[in-house]
Amino acid sequence: MRLRPRPRLRPLTRRFPGAVAMLAAAAVLIGGCDVARDAARDRIAGLRHVVAAAHARPAAADQKPGGPKAGSPKAKADAWRLVWSDEFRGPARHRPDQAKWSFDRGGEPQWGNHEWQYYTDRPGNVSLDGHGNLALTARHERVHEVRGKKCGFGPCDITSARLTTKGRFARAYGRFEARIKIPKGQGLWPAFWMLGANVDKVAWPGNGEIDVMEALGRQPGTVHGTIHGPGYVAQGIENHTTLARGRSLADGFHTYRVDWAPGKLTWYLDGKPYGAACAGQLKHGQKWVFDHPHYLLLNLAVGGDWPGPPDRSTPFPARMLVDYVRVFERAGR
């Protein structure tokens, strides 16, 4: 899909030389922990960049045919700069890039949610699918590494996968985005989230947890965005949105994102904001612990306190497909 040329923006800057300054002032005035204001701020910031770019670029550049495809990192270059990504290209059953990801292994009690699954690094649980996606697959099976071991919860017959960038990549602030197709079914719990990189020195939840996307397989039309910290551990500060007309997030790929600035996070589904959390909204006894680098995680859990256990209706194998994970910083910073 071509980017539309922007020739009409040039007369705007000539007729109104203070337009960029006016937009900048409006952006400063828009703030607070408010989703509608965040959306307006993003539109103003994008327009500021478009106006500035139109004023600076030669006309031929605006008229040049072609351009980046929709959804590509380059398509976001006007307002944001890509700083880290994984597009999951490669042959089927190959592991994801181990310079970017490592694998968490094992079962409860180390995850702390009474989950049923045992995480492995086997291709049957985590690998590229050969079509530009990462596949995290939960299976109903018994494997050698689980046999003879006591499972904390469940019958010890579910395997799955959990990836992390701990020790490889961590960042504070920016835009964190993934395009994912979640599975549906009772007891399934897909997630894209972040943990404070100081976890080895400051135990959870003091290091901070930012859940960009969590979904329950029994409610596949709803996405949840949450933060956990001291004073809001189990419940968290949670936002969610539900697709209209009974649609399911499991029917196709959707984009899950959080925009993170000092003291503030805003959650988006398919580019539309649906919730925010701010340091200023915390209550007595709660502490904001998110203004430092966090690393990324992807996992497909099964069972646990929130989703409940799987049952006979749960489809196995269940796959969570990840088209990409991308991290951006604001342009000009």
UniProtKB/TrEMBL annotation:
Q: What is this protein called?
A: Family 16 glycosylhydrolase
* InterPro entries given in the database record: Beta-glucanase-like, ConA-like_dom_sf, Glycosyl_Hydrlase_16
- Which PANTHER family does the record cross-reference, listed alphabetically? GLYCOSIDE HYDROLASE FAMILY 16 PROTEIN, GLYCOSYL HYDROLASE-RELATED
Give the family from UniProt: Belongs to the glycosyl hydrolase 16 family.
Extract the ranges annotated as region (Disordered): 56-76
The protein's organism comes out as Streptomyces ehimensis
Q: Which Gene3D superfamilies match?
A: 2.60.120.200
Under the heading CDD domains, the entry gives: GH16_laminarinase_like (cd08023)
Where in this chain does the record put each GH16 domain? 67-333
Name a Pfam family for this protein.
Answer: Glyco_hydro_16
